[in-house]
Amino acid sequence: MKIALAQLNYHVGNFESNTNKIIDHIIKAKNHGADLVVFAELCVCGYPSRDFLEFDEFIGLCDDAAKKIAEVCIDIACIVGLPTPNHKTEGKDLSNSAYFIENGKVKAVVNKALLPNYDVFDEYRYFEPSTEFSCIEFKGKRIALTICEDLWNTIENPLYVTRPMDTLIHQDPHVMINIAASPFAYNHDEERIEILSDNASRYKLPLLYVNHVGAQTELIFDGGSLVFDNTGKLIDEMPYFEESLAYYTLNEDNTLSFDHPTTIKTQRPGDIEQIYQGIILGIRDYFYKSGFKQAILGLSGGIDSAVVCALAAEALGPQNVMAVLLPSRFSTDHSLKDAQDLVDNLGCKHEIVPIKSITEAFETALNPQFDGLPFNIAEENIQSRSRAVLLMAMCNKFGYILLNTSNKSEAAVGYGTLYGDMCGGISVIGDVYKTQVFELARYINRDKEIIPVNSIIKPPSAELRPDQKDTDSLPEYDVLDKILAEYIENRCSSAEIIRMGYDEATVKRVIKLTNSAEHKRYQTPPILRVSPKAFGMGRRMPIVGKYLS
Asked: Active site annotated at which positions (predicted)?
């Protein structure tokens, strides 16, 4: 039996595009002699559809799409994922389902049993977990079909009380197939391989796994579909961050073989390389799927905006990126030169709009209220908000989307101005710590200098007052980022972090700043998720909570 794995980029709610893409690949697979073509979890509607799933019309459109797919599925079978109504009175109204379609008809329906509701996942909000498990008979073989999380309960601390494969294995399947919507994080590829390999070896069955690729707002899907033999050995690994269609043969002895050269990575890509690829895909899909083509950002000459500008130019093409230099009376000449050198290196468009007279006008207007009071954060933030007003005006006039350039370290401790440098349509590096931003800059410069070296080596500064440095307000970033990672990613308490050897006063101050800034993060744009724990939908904290503050 020849099986095709279709690793594709879907668009939430775009039924016409998703259906046509699925049909095109059914035809391709059929012309290539495939007996079965496998698509990803909830591919018909895209993932995650969130509260679109609460609309009956949306579920009806999923069913209409499945019927169109079935019409072309002749002399070949396919597996597609979609939400379906739960016809039982008890429980949620929907199931997260997979259709097995053969010769124009749905021959079997498999419903997901293990519904994640941690981190970015919220499936139990919509779906009823399945309690019934049956193999699919096809061409003399029995297929144990599961959906994503259904194979993830083999971990040391199981999240669920059942394992679907423990039931399916008693039906003597010949092969496991798992369809998934598994989001990207820079450490997730190795975790995936370990979990899926454990399943193949545990049940002594070959395993084919197909994942989404592409981005849906903040969630990035990296593809990397996988194939294992019945010992748990990885025998093929599909490309990351791109669409792909690959073919495998399930032989009479239930071994898997394939004709194409294996693409198994002999060396796993590093975190920064993966972050780079993920962000490029995230920017590209955010614009394409939103119907926009051109980005704008404020370019300061600092490392954050330089990295964002370079990433945007790579993702969208430099001709579609407008970098605006917005010097204030505190901007240094070398910062302006660094910004100018960057746009020259990239070839993107740019404008220079000084804000000195604008901020002075605001300060003059506020003279009656501010008279006799010292210059402080109020005047600093007027500069940042003046820049945001100008950038948003250009968005309105020319149809740009504003890229937010705040990094994760700044977002964590609130080192940014609401309605100023924290505004934007999408946050590009809001899940990248400052120390990682430096690494990302060096990666961007791996072949030639794109980001000026001075932007990388000079002390970071917001340049909102004379001789300002980030370290005037914050610990050194190499210390700050380690504390933040322990608190945010590893969920360690202040006491635990202090026991690791960090200065007690610094730890308590950092955690207090982080908790106090929750109201700011609540109002920021969606952040492209590249880490195991990003700000946004995957980290839900009370704004006025006092714990650890």
From this structure: 41, 112, 148
Q: Please, which residues bridge with residue 111 across strands?
A: 97
Enclosing domain of residue 438: 273-470
Q: What is d(CA 29, CA 53) in angstroms, rounded to the nearest whole number?
A: 30
Q: Which amino acid is at 415?
A: Y
Number of residues that this document lists for the chain: 549
CB neighbours of 396 closer than 8 A, spacing ≥ 6? none
Supply the pTM of this predicted model: 0.95
Binned at pLDDT 50, 70 and 90, residue 329 comes out as confident
Total domains in the chain come to 2
Q: Is 243 annotated as a binding residue?
A: no
30 is catalytic: no
Contact, 483 vs 497, CB < 8 A?
A: yes
Q: 92 and 216: one domain?
A: yes
Confidence of residue 435 (pLDDT cuts 50, 70, 90): very high
- Whether residue 179 is found in the same domain as residue 41: yes
> Taking 80 as the threshold, does the pLDDT of residue 92 lie above it?
yes
298 is in an annotated binding site: yes
- Give the CATH number of the domain where residue 344 resides: 3.40.50.620
* Higher pLDDT, residue 266 or 389: 389
pLDDT band at 549, cuts 50/70/90? low
Tens digit of each residue's pLDDT (9 = 90 or more) over 359-395 = 999 999 999 999 999 999 999 999 999 999 999 999 9
Of 421, 455, 470, the residue that ends a domain is 470
- Name the catalytic one among 62, 148, 348, 395: 148
Co-location of 283 and 375 in the same domain:
yes
Q: For residues 453 and 344, give the distance between their C-alpha atoms in angstroms, rounded to a whole number.
A: 14
- Is the per-residue pLDDT at 466 higher than 80? no
Catalytic residue among 21, 41, 141, 289: 41
Report the percentage of the chain scoring pLDDT > 70. 99
303 assigned binding-site residue: yes
Is 112 labeled as catalytic in the residue annotation?
Answer: yes
3-state DSSP assignment of residue 442? helix
Q: Are residues 23 and 84 in the same domain?
A: yes
The structure tokens listed for 376 are 């402080």
H or E element: which one contains 136?
A: strand 136-138
- pLDDT at 424 > cutoff 80: yes
182 assigned binding-site residue: yes
- For this structure, is 135 an active site residue? no
pLDDT tens-place string over residues 201-252:
999 999 999 999 999 999 999 999 999 999 999 999 999 999 999 999 999 9
Q: What per-residue confidence (pLDDT) applies to 334?
A: 74
What does the DSSP 8-state code read for residue 440?
H
- Region label for 56, one of left (φ > 0), alpha (ψ between -120 and 50) or beta (otherwise): alpha
- Distance between start and end Cα atoms, the chain: 60
Whether 216 contacts 278, CB under 8 Å: no
**Cα angle, residue 537 at apex, residues 533 and 540 outer, rounded to 5°:** 80
Q: Is 410 annotated among the ligand-binding residues?
A: yes
Catalytic residue (one of 21, 62, 78, 112):
112
- The tokens describing 199, both together, are 């399943």
Are residue 171 and residue 62 in the same domain, yes or no?
Answer: yes
- Whether residues 121 and 201 share a domain: the answer is yes
- Alpha helix positions (H), 73-187: 164-168
